[in-house]
Write a structure and sequence with these properties.
Layout lengths: L1 E5 L14 H25 L1 E7 L10 H12 L5 E5 L7 H10 L6 E3 L5 E7 L2 E7 L21 E7 L1 E3 L9 E3 L10 E5 L5 E4 L5 E4 L15 E8 L2 E8 L5 E7 L6 H14 L7 E7 L1 E3 L6 H9 L4 E6 L2 E3 L11 H15 L4 H15 L7
Parallel strand pairs: 1-2, 2-3, 3-4, 6-7, 7-10, 8-9, 10-12, 15-16, 16-18, 17-19
Antiparallel strand pairs: 1-13, 5-6, 11-12, 13-14
The structure holds manganese (II) ion.
Manganese (II) ion binds next to loops.
Length: about 375
C-alpha cells in the first residue's frame, strides 16, 4: 500500500513580500499546479490515500480557482482517499463552499475534528488505521492523554502543530512530542513546520514533518516535496520525494577578487551553477569578502542583470571595506583629512576600530560621489 503524506500547501498565499502582483499570481498558480501534479503522481504510482496534515489553504478567503481545482482533484480520483486534517491556517470556507456549490463533500474526502477520529484504510491484505485530531488552544495539552490505539494494528497518527519538548500550558498549537512515545504509533504524519524532517520517535514510530510542497520565500530554502509511504505488513518505508517546481536558495558569494559589477555578476553566475541552481529557481545572494574602498559595485545593475536569468533574485551587499590607511596618509584632499581624523578617533578609543572603518567607508564613498551609500 502506498500513501502520500503532504502538508502546508498554503494555497492562495498572497506572496506579496517579494513579488509584484503578476509574479505573485503566477506563483500562486504554481502552488496549485504542484498540488494537482502531486495527486496525478499519486494516481500514477498507485497511491491509495493522501494525508494532508494541515494548512492546505493559507487564507480564510479562498479563490474559486483553488477551491474548484482541489475539489476536482479529489472527485476525479475516486480510488484515492483524501484525509484532510485542518491546520491553523485552514478555515471552514473550503468545506462550506464546496457543500454549497456541489451539494455535499466528496465521499473520498475524510475530515477530522477537535477529538480523535480514526479511519480504517484497507488495500489488498494491508490495513492501516489513520487517526487524527485538530489541535486548538483548548485541547492542545489534553489531547495526547485521550489517544488510545490498538497496538496490534498499523497506526498512522496525523497532527498539525509545533513540536515542543514538554506539555506546558500554552495558547499555541503545540505537539508535546515525547508524550507520543510508546503509544503504538507506527508513523506520525505532521504538518506546520515547513522544512522536511524524518526521525525516529521510539523503536516503533517514525515521525515526520514532510514540509511544504513549494518554498514561498527565503525562510523556506532547500528541497521541498512530500513523503511517500510504502506500507506492508512488515513495516512502513518512508521516502521523501523532492517535487517543488522551484527551489529557494540563500547563498553567500565571495567577491573579494571582483573589480567591478560585471565581475560580480560573473562570480554569482559561476557560484550558482556550481551549486546546481537553475534559472527557474529563487535566490538570495549575499556578496561577501573584503573589497577595496574605491571599488564600486552597483547593486541595482547587478540585480537587474541577474533578474533576467533567475525567476527571482535579491542581492545584498555584505562585503567589508578594505581600507589602506597608508594610501591616505599624505592625501591632501578632504577625503584624506577625513580618514586621518577618524583614524585618530579610533586610536583614542572614541570609536571602535569597526565603527571607524564603517564611518570611513561610508564617508569616503560619499565624498567620492558614489550613488549607493549603504
Ligand atoms: Mn500551520
Amino acid at each position: 500500500m502506498k500513501i502520500i503524506h503532504t502538508a502546508d500547501l498554503h494555497l492562495d498565499s498572497k506572496l506579496s513580500r517579494y513579488f509584484d502582483s503578476a509574479k505573485a499570481s503566477q506563483r500562486r498558480n504554481e502552488l496549485l499546479l504542484s498540488f494537482q501534479k502531486m495527486v496525478e503522481y499519486g494516481s500514477t504510482v498507485g497511491v491509495s490515500a493522501i494525508i494532508i496534515a494541515g494548512d492546505l489553504f493559507d487564507v480564510r478567503k479562498i479563490s474559486a480557482t483553488a477551491r474548484d481545482a482541489v475539489y476536482s482533484s479529489v472527485v476525479n480520483n475516486p480510488d484515492i482517499e483524501f484525509f484532510y486534517l485542518r491546520g491553523n491556517h485552514d478555515a471552514d470556507t473550503f468545506l462550506n463552499q464546496i457543500t454549497e456549490k456541489y451539494g455535499s463533500l466528496p465521499e473520498n474526502l475524510k475530515m477530522f475534528s477537535g477529538d480523535w477520529t480514526s479511519y480504517v484504510h484497507t488495500e489488498g491484505d494491508v490495513s492501516v488505521v489513520i487517526t487524527g485530531a485538530e489541535i486548538t488552544k483548548e485541547n492542545n495539552t489534553a489531547l495526547v492523554d485521550s489517544l488510545s490505539l490498538d497496538r496490534k494494528r498499523i497506526n498512522i497518527v496525523t497532527l498539525h502543530g509545533q513540536e515542543v519538548p514538554t506539555a506546558g500550558k500554552t495558547d499555541a498549537e503545540v505537539i508535546p512530542l515525547p508524550m507520543y512515545r510508546d503509544r503504538g504509533i507506527d508513523y506520525l504524519a505532521l504538518g506546520h513546520i515547513h522544512a522536511p524532517k524524518i526521525e525516529k520517535l521510539d523503536s516503533r514510530c517514525t515521525y515526520s514533518y514532510c514540509g511544504c510542497l513549494e518554498g514561498r520565500g527565503f525562510d523556506e530554502v532547500g528541497e521541498r516535496g512530500f513523503n511517500l509511504l510504502d506500507i506492508t505488513n512488515d513495516g512502513i518505508k518512508v521516502t521523501f520525494v523532492p517535487f517543488a517546481k522551484r527551489t529557494v536558495f540563500d547563498i553567500s558569494v565571495d567577491v573579494s577578487d571582483c573589480e567591478n559589477s560585471g565581475d560580480v555578476i560573473a562570480a554569482v553566475r559561476d557560484f550558482a551553477s556550481s551549486k546546481g541552481i537553475a534559472d527557474k529557481d529563487m535566490l538570495k545572494v549575499r556578496l561577501s569578502g573584503k573589497v577595496p574602498l574605491d571599488t564600486e559595485f552597483d547593486l541595482n545593475y547587478i540585480t537587474q542583470n541577474l533578474s533576467e536569468e533567475y525567476f527571482f533574485i535579491k542581492v545584498l551587499d555584505e562585503t567589508e571595506s578594505l581600507i589602506d590607511f597608508e594610501s591616505f596618509a599624505f592625501d591632501k584632499s578632504l577625503k584624506g583629512e577625513f580618514v586621518r581624523l577618524l583614524k585618530k578617533e579610533a586610536e583614542k578609543g572614541t570609536l571602535s576600530e569597526e565603527e571607524a572603518a564603517d564611518c570611513i567607508a561610508m564617508g569616503v564613498r560619499l565624498l567620492m560621489g558614489e550613488e549607493k551609500l549603504v
